[in-house]
Write a structure and sequence with these properties.
With about 190 residues, the chain is mainly alpha-helical. It contains 7 helices and 5 strands. The longest helix is centred in the N-terminal third of the chain and has 26 residues. It binds iron/sulfur cluster.
Amino acid sequence: MSAQQIHAYIERLSNLLRNEFRRSGSEHGLQPIQIEALHYLSLCNRYSDTPMGVTEYLGQTKGTVSQSLKVLEKKGFLSKNADDNDKRIIHLRITEAGRTSLEEIIPAALFSRACEHLAADDQARIIDALKDLLRGIQRANAMKSFGVCRTCRYNQKLEAGGYLCGLTQEPLSLSDIQLICREHEPINITLGQ
Ligand code: SF4
């Protein structure tokens, strides 16, 4: 059964990746979950860089994520900043030190070496297939997509130039639309789906 085969390959790849994270992360004093939290914060937008955003993305408990964030802050890999309009909201920002460490860990050297042996077409096919699989799992389980802003149905390209988030009614820059968002909804999703 193909589901069984796909599961076996994904599981094997996950284990290899996790082991590689453990090895390279230990050089920076980081656990795999802390690397994943830092990686998420390096990719997400201003609506998603909160402790809740990290918790939802990682699918871990609040307590586990909170401990990881404390370690990252103590190491100087992230900073906490109160929201300009609502001081109850805390934004987590990756620091330069955090970004530098992350660049040394991701992509894992093991994966980079393997990808060097794949043709560009094969790499594109793998990315598309994995993207489809992820979307399928998210839809089947009514999970948030955490997609890139430019692929969101709320993203509006303005005639005068620039972009607007139809959900928050706030302007979006060119760099904003490259980031992932916890409010993202794929363009092809229908309401109530
Ligand atoms: S357009 Fe979509 S993805 Fe972009 S900020 Fe708005 S809700 Fe998030």
